[in-house]
Design brief:
Distance between the termini: 16 Å
Number of strands: 0
Low-confidence stretches: none
Structural class: mainly alpha
Largest sheet: none
């Protein structure tokens, strides 16, 4: 069930009204709403989700009672096996066939009928985090499966995150009957929902068919076309995924919950480290806490630290999809993280040896350096997105080849002229990205100005127009969220 559909808004309104009419039944209402939301995709996968979550709930309750490592291992194996079966079984079989030259399974047999359950990657990571946190005594396991189900399957973040932690969300779930909704929080939640809808429908869904055309035949692209398509995909995936996250956080506000923001204008990042503090924040923190640090983090020397970083990012890439293109995408980001940390350390040592410039000169140099770094890293990020979007490894390398084709410089000016309209679109999208960053930084002051300076009738007219715009938007053509496939 997509957020930008009439069916979803019907479920939301009914659930919202009953939620505040029947305070003592809130958990039951949310539990039912979670089931209906997920069942809209598949009743069978709802049964799978209920089963896996119930077994994880039982295992979590056993962890503090003894043999905790055994139960933790069992819980992790079960969740990883569930994910691996649905997401990676065919990938593993195909690669074994490539290596051995044997035909291991029939292409029209059982294995070809496996369908990836929506949101399985997200709820798997959330279940594993819960088990680990119980094992490490960061949280106590709940004794109510209903509360656990609301925690793991709260429908706004059920299909594509943000990835919630037990210590963040479970205390809120336990306080559900006592949660209140203030006018300020209601308006902020609606604002985030509308903001997300605008990004999804006005940007992501409009750019999607343009991007599809660029990636159909990558070997036939000119240099300017290849760069233009890659730029546009970068904005498409950002607008698409951040739209879902914004709406999820906004929907949480409507029910009194506080979900973490998952994006913070990532394309203003000056390096890979900053990018992963701004892009899919809950995933990057999950990878850090449950993969990178358990591998040893930075505690076992520089080389081991770099290996741990690359390993963590390879797993992150594979988590996104059972294709070598995602593995390469993860490796490239891991490589950029390693290179940046070496570069940052070397630069710091160099600057420590040089005389410090005057304060004014230092500020100017710092701003120029930062602007250049943001520009360069944006190009690097754009290149990596090719592997994320391409249909296969060969297509990805054909696309990269077009981006760096030496022959493309011969008539580059004409190529740019032919792509002028779409390149201007790229510029506009980046300006919107910067505008979003400014607005997010000054939300409180902007809201204060809005309510102090704009008369109530004018505000009411704007709100009414927004409602009509939303109705018009949800009647248009629908595109799935990209991250639903993960």
């Amino acid at each position: 069930m997509l957020f930008h559909t009439a069916e979803f808004f019907f479920l939301l309104i009914i659930t919202f009204v009953l939620y505040y009419l029947f305070r003592n039944a809130r958990l039951v209402l949310l539990g039912v709403a979670n089931c209906l939301f997920y069942a809209a995709a598949s009743w069978g996968f709802l049964g799978l989700f209920l089963g896996v979550s119930f077994i994880s709930y039982l295992i979590a309750r056993q962890i503090p009672r003894g043999r905790s490592r055994f139960w933790l291992t069992l819980g992790i194996i079960m969740n990883v096996a569930n994910l691996a079966f649905f997401k990676y079984s065919m990938f593993i079989i195909e690669n074994l066939e490539t290596v051995t030259g044997l035909t291991l399974v029939a292409r029209d047999g059982f294995w070809s009928t496996i369908v990836l359950p929506i949101g399985i990657s997200f709820y798997t990571f959330q279940l594993i985090a819960y088990l680990v946190d119980v094992y490490k005594e960061r949280i106590q396991p709940t004794n109510s499966y209903l509360r656990f189900w609301v925690f793991i399957a709260f429908f706004p973040h059920q299909l594509a995150g943000p990835i919630m932690r037990g210590h963040e969300f479970m205390p809120q779930v336990e306080q559900t009957p006592n949660l209140t909704l203030t006018p300020t929080h209601f308006k902020y939640g609606v604002y985030l929902i509308l903001w997300g809808l605008a990004k999804k429908i006005l940007i992501a869904d409009q750019v999607a068919p343009i991007v599809n055309d660029y990636f159909k035949n990558p070997a036939d692209l000119t240099m300017a076309e290849a760069w233009t398509g890659a730029y546009l995909f970068g904005f498409q995936i950002y607008a698409d995924f951040s739209a879902y996250s914004d709406m999820a956080v906004g929907l949480g506000y409507l029910f009194g919950y506080r979900l973490p923001m998952n994006f913070l204008s990532p394309y203003i990042s000056a390096n890979a480290t900053e990018f992963w503090r701004r892009w899919h924040i809950t995933l990057s923190s999950w990878i850090r806490d449950y993969i990178y640090i358990p591998l040893g983090g930075s505690r076992k020397g520089r080389i081991r630290k770099d290996v741990n970083l690359l390993t963590a990012m390879l797993i992150s890439g594979l988590w996104h999809g059972a294709m070598w293109t995602f593995v390469i995408w993860g490796f490239l980001h891991g490589l950029m993280l390693v290179v940046h940390k070496w570069y940052a350390d070397g630069l710091k040592k160099l600057l420590d040896r040089l005389p410090s410039p005057r304060a004014a000169v230092s500020r100017i140099m710092s701003r120029v350096y930062h602007a250049v770094a943001v520009f360069i890293f944006f190009q690097l990020t754009t290149i990596t997105w090719v592997f994320f979007r391409a249909e296969g490894v060969q297509d990805a390398f054909d696309y990269i080849g077009a981006m760096f084709d030496p022959a493309g410089w011969a008539n580059f000016a004409q190529q740019v002229a032919s792509q002028a309209s779409y390149l201007w679109l790229v510029v506009i999208l980046y300006a919107v990205h910067l505008l979003e960053y400014v607005i997010r930084r000054h939300e409180t002051s902007i809201a204060s100005w809005w309510h102090r300076r704009v008369p109530a009738p004018a505000r009411g007219l704007v709100y009414a127009l927004l409602v009509f715009v939303v109705i018009a938007m949800i009647k248009g053509e629908k595109h799935d969220f990209i991250y639903f496939q993960f």
